[in-house]
Write a structure and sequence with these properties.
CATH architecture of the largest domain: Orthogonal Bundle
Number of strands: 2
Radius of gyration: 20 Å
Largest sheet: 2 strands, antiparallel
CATH superfamily of the largest domain: Clc chloride channel
């Protein structure tokens, strides 16, 4: 690139990154403020969970009537990155915001990352027509929108930028995307945290053991467990989605049936531990031993909720699953409980989304850089042992190396298909 091209590139993405950061950061702030209200209201009025089937019909009908391709959620962002066929509709933002708030208000088990990412990508893509961006720049602005949404909803700007790059351009990160992703993530995080004053949950890993060979070797069985858990989460979500689509042909009816069963589960179990985000339970996982089955219950309820057609994200439930699984593993693995919870927090996320770099950086941003070696190894092992699974069905994993059992040993495998290259 000559000096004129570099100047145009920098100027263009300073302006676009600022605009996308303002939009995505403000959207995440409004979303988080509303989500906190919905969670508090539900916990103070538990009877409202009985209305989850009605909320499910409203969500299902809204997407059926007005959603068009917005129903694909995060997968639509990936499809457009790979194929750049048509603009992401602006309606995706209010639909996913409305659907996620209703899901949480009435007791579904879901997260928030998917909502923030979809709002960020949808709002960012609206700028394409005003700035007349060509296909390569449109890909970059989609990545910037995802970075802004992710960074602002979790308060992790570095991880937000890396997640967008790693998730959307798996093993093919291009240098032109680096500055827009990071700049947008920083702006969006500042808008959400400083301009709107939205706080984020803090987690404490108070003890990091020495990096001895024995301590590092204990990461291996933990990482394998996290990878298999991420794989179970992804496959369970796809399984329930397939079953609902196969057996219930009218889409608005799927979350109605799902809502009835979820409300019945809450009533029979007499517990709201596994619905909503589950952040209080995640915090507990860093502090005290919990029932061993917490991670399994959250996996089942969240995959069922999302498979039935309710809206939200998967990442916070993955945090819940990972932190409580790490908590359970502390019974057998001689590493500090909080460290294992932190390793699981990002490790299961890494396995389910195939983003080990982003998850490692996120862990260091949340728990401190002292735990980085443990987090990084756990994320890498989880990534390798999750196989060719992803919570995002459109994610391009053609070149992913992974480990799978074959004839009694574990073997490296790679799909060499050129699809979507």
């Amino acid at each position: 690139m000559n000096s004129a091209s570099i100047f145009r590139y920098v100027l263009l993405w300073i302006v676009l990154g600022l605009l996308v950061g303002l939009l995505s950061g403000a959207a995440s702030a409004i979303f988080l403020i509303t989500l906190n209200w919905a969670t508090d209201y539900r916990e103070s009025h538990l009877w409202i969970i009985a209305l989850l089937p009605i909320a499910g019909f409203v969500i299902g009908w809204s997407y059926y009537r007005y959603g068009e391709n917005s129903v694909k959620g995060n997968n639509l962002l990936l499809d457009e990155l790979y194929k750049t066929e048509k603009p992401i509709p602006l309606r995706m933002t209010p639909l996913v915001l409305f659907g996620t708030i209703l899901t949480h208000l009435f007791g579904g088990s879901a997260g928030r990352e998917g909502t923030a990412v979809q709002m960020g990508g949808s709002l960012a893509d609206q700028l394409t027509k005003y700035f007349k961006l060509h296909s390569e720049d449109r890909r970059i602005i989609l990545i910037a929108g995802v970075a802004g949404g992710f960074a602002s909803v979790f308060g992790t700007p570095l991880a937000g930028a890396i997640f967008a790059l790693e998730w959307m351009q798996h093993r093919k990160i291009r240098w032109k995307s680096l500055f827009p992703a990071l700049w947008t993530a920083l702006v969006a995080n500042w808008v959400c945290a400083s301009l709107f004053g939205v706080g984020h949950t803090h987690y404490l890993v108070d003890l990091v053991p020495p990096h001895t060979l024995v301590n590092l070797l204990w990461i291996i069985p933990a990482g394998i467990a996290f990878g298999l858990s991420g794989r179970l989460f992804a496959q369970s979500t796809h399984f329930f989605s397939h079953q609902f689509s196969k057996h219930i042909t009218y889409p608005p009816l799927r979350p109605v049936i799902g809502g009835l069963l979820i409300a019945a589960f809450v009533y029979i179990s007499d517990s709201t531990t596994y619905i909503g985000l589950g952040v209080p339970r995640i915090v507990e996982a860093f502090e005290t031993p919990l029932p061993w089955y917490d991670w399994l219950a959250k996996t089942g309820l969240t995959s069922f909720t999302l498979g039935a057609g309710f809206k939200g994200g998967e990442v916070t439930p993955l945090f819940f699953t990972g932190a409580t699984l790490g908590n359970a593993l502390a019974t057998w693995i001689p590493l500090p409980l909080a460290l294992l919870a932190g390793m699981g927090f990002v490790g299961v996320f890494s396995g389910a989304t195939n983003t080990p770099m982003a998850c490692t950086v996120m862990g260091m941003e949340l728990f401190g850089y002292e735990s980085g070696i443990f987090l990084g190894i756990a994320c890498l092992i989880a990534y390798l042992f999750s196989g060719r699974s992803s919570i995002y069905s459109s994610q391009n994993l053609d070149k992913k190396f992974h480990l799978y059992p074959a004839e009694g040993i574990f073997t490296f495998s790679r799909n060499s298909s050129k699809k979507n290259d």
